[in-house]
C-alpha cells in the first residue's frame, strides 16, 4: 500500500522537475540570466587570477609548487606585477605564464557569455564553434603547463635530464592546435556533420590525455614527497597541495571527456546551443570555474625574494 502511494509521488516529482527544466531551457529570460551568471563567475575568476588573497610569507618549500597570491584582496596591485617585482631577473617564468593564461581563458569566457546570444547568430556556423571551443584549448594548455612543471620537479629530483620536457610540451600543444584548426577549416570549407562529430571526439581524447597526465605526474610527485623525511619543512603542506590539485584537475578533465562524448553522440547534451542553459551552467561550473577557483586558492603563495630566502634543490 505504501509503495503504491510513493510511486505516484515520485513520478509526479520527476514530471515536475522535467517541466521546470524545459521551462527554463526554453525561456529567453532564463537563458540570458544563466549566461550572465556564467559571465560574472568567469570575470570573478579572471580577477582572482590577477589579484592577491593573503599575506602569508612563503617558505623555501614553495619551490615545489606554483604560487599565485599573497596580499589582501583590497590591494590595488595585480599579481603578475607583484611577481615581476619580486623576482624580475627570472623574466616570464612558468608561474607568470600560468597566471596570464588563467586570466586570458577566464576573461575571454566572460566576454563570450556576455555576448552569447549574438554569437549564436554568427555565420558561417563554424565561427560559433571556434569562439566557444578555442578557450577550451587554451584551458588545456594552461593546465598542461602545470603538468610540465611537476614533471620537471620530479625528474630533477631523480637527477634525470629534463631537456626534452619543454620541447615535448610545445610539440603536443602544436599537434593539438594543428589538428583542431585543420578540422575547423575543413568544416568551414565543406560543413559535414561527421567532421563536427570528429572534432568533439578529438577534444574528448585531448581531455582524457590531460587527465592521465595529471594522474601520472601528480601521482609520481605525491609519492616522491611521501618519501621525504617527516621533519622536512613544508612536507605536509606540499603533500596536501599536490594531492588536492591532482584530484581536482584529473576529475575536471575526466568529466570534460565524458561530457564531450555525450555532446558528440547525443543532441540532448549539445552544449553549443542557446536552449541548453542549465546544462551549460552545470558543465562549465564543473570543468572550468570550480577547478580554476580551487587551484588558484590552493596554490596561493609568492616566490621568496632573492637575497632573503633562496630556493634549495631537491635531493
TrEMBL record:
Its main location: membrane. The keyword rRNA processing does not apply. InterPro entries: THH1/TOM1/TOM3, THH1/TOM1/TOM3_dom. Pfam families: THH1_TOM1-3_dom (PF06454). It is found in: Vacuole membrane. It is a multi-pass membrane protein. Residues 17-53, 78-315 form the THH1/TOM1/TOM3 domain. The keyword Membrane applies. This is THH1/TOM1/TOM3 domain-containing protein. It comes from Escallonia rubra.
